[in-house]
Amino acid sequence: SKSVYADTNGVPRSGDPPRVLHLGLTDGEIANRVVVVGHHSRAELLSSFLSPEGSEVFKLASDRGFLAYTGLYNDQRLSIVSIGMGLSMMDFFVREARAIVKGPMAIVRLGTCGCLQEWVKVGCVSVASAGSALVQRNYSHFDAPKAHAGSEPYLISDLCMPDAELTALVASSLQEALGAQKVVEGINITADSFYSSQGRADPAFTDENSVLIEKVLQRYPKAITMEMESFQLFHLARSSLPKGSIKAAAAVVNVANRPTGPQGLCCCCRCCILLL
Ligand code: R1P
Ligand code: URA
Asked: How far is CA 129 from CA 126, 162, 234, 244, 250, in A?
């Protein structure tokens, strides 16, 4: 039954066959190569490029909001997984996927983002080839202001790097498919909120974030994108054991330009509409 967990203090599973709790998957149901996205419709679209291993492409929607497809692409086994949003969902995905896949893994995030540089146009795809930094709300600063007087409201981490080889392959494949002018490379910023830690103004909360983007760009002048998962993917890939057994890369479609505000959809429109 669901209430009986095997390995409660490790990576718990339940049922027969034993399924990881949140992805709802068991051994072998996803491939060593995974494209991870945030939205179910994006996963569904990408899954249309898969051919079935048996009679049909494997599909499983978990009761915790994950959606996985597995099939063949260019004769290689490939999974497309939609995970929703944020650091925790990426943590659930990478850890539970690792538990049910044998051998080395390659995980590529195909996401969306806001862009931090005026010259990066909506509709371009940005590859995080120069790494990702995490911006976190400094909870203690807000909850115990006296004890933490003088502290920063947001913590900006060092850079975490993706796998260089996989990233170069992602960048060159995108350039080939979209044209070099549509592909940008640089630093990504992952934030732990779409709102406060991405510098959005929300009068309903104390956020102290009016100069946050400025501070991020002072520290990382080459930051081009802001989104919510890539840093966690890179960090867990780098922390994976045996060392190097997960290789990670990330590319994100720019759906909003933060410095200029609305620019409308890009010239091809297809990616914006499908990925929003
Ligand atoms: C916020 O709207 C979501 O969009 C971006 C952010 O990282 C966040 O998850 O990526 P996805 O479109 O992949 O979800
Ligand atoms: N996703 C984000 O996290 N931020 C944006 O501005 C757009 C998409």
From this structure: 9, 7, 11, 17, 8
